[in-house]
Task: inverse folding
């Protein structure tokens, strides 16, 4: 589940984008107070921002620069100002892509999904993922924590990859098992429980006690705090 924030003063366009993104199972937030864009950004914690250029009070370039002071979240400008200079300006101001109005909704969704994949789907070129002071080394199948490390089995690596990618939220048991089945690791509910138990013991051995949390009846997530041996 990705959070997408829509900063668009044309209510019709904002509603069309919101409704279509909701169909694709994205959580959306449409900004209503254009003096409070940063406050809403901080509260909502989006994984992607759709930003109009022409807005009340301050334009989209201003808000993009403000966002870039605290976050590198992917941002797509959506604007009727779609001359080449406008597109260049949008990228120079910190945007990652540009959708011109009027737009084809299918193309717009495809661009959004492509940017999300590039940003959050980790390939072999990515060396590691981090959370708190722990680092998941994908190429090495290891977790590093300060000066200690543990080796992970193939299934353990895939489980931890899902938890690191979705840090800050819980991942359902079903989602984890579906991911493992996609990678031809034929794992059932009981096998997943065994893997989680083994992972917790390994993590505790390097000081990451209670690093994996359980949400009863749902799934697993990473602890909100930094667990150490102290």
Result:
């Amino acid at each position: 589940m990705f959070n997408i924030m829509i900063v668009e003063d044309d209510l019709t366009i904002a509603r069309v984008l919101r409704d279509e993104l909701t169909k694709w199972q994205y959580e959306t937030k449409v900004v209503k107070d254009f003096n409070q864009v940063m406050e809403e950004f901080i509260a909502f914690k989006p994984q992607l921002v759709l930003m109009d250029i022409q807005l009340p009070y301050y334009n989209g370039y201003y808000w993009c620069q403000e966002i870039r002071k605290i976050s590198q979240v992917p941002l797509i400008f959506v604007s009727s100002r779609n001359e080449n200079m406008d597109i260049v300006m949008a990228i120079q101001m910190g945007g990652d892509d540009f959708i011109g109005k009027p737009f084809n909704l299918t193309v717009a969704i495809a661009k959004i999904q492509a940017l999300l994949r590039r940003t959050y789907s980790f390939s072999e070129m990515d060396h590691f993922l981090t959370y708190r002071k722990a680092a998941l080394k994908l190429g090495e199948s290891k977790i590093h924590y300060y000066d200690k490390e543990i080796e992970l089995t193939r299934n353990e690596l895939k489980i931890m990859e899902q938890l690191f990618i979705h840090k800050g939220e819980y991942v359902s048991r079903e989602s984890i098992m579906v991911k493992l089945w996609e990678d031809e690791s034929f794992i059932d509910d009981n096998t997943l429980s065994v893997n989680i138990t083994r992972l917790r013991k390994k993590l505790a051995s390097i000081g990451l006690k209670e690093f994996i949390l359980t949400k009863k009846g749902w799934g697993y997530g990473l602890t909100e705090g930094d667990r150490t041996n102290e």
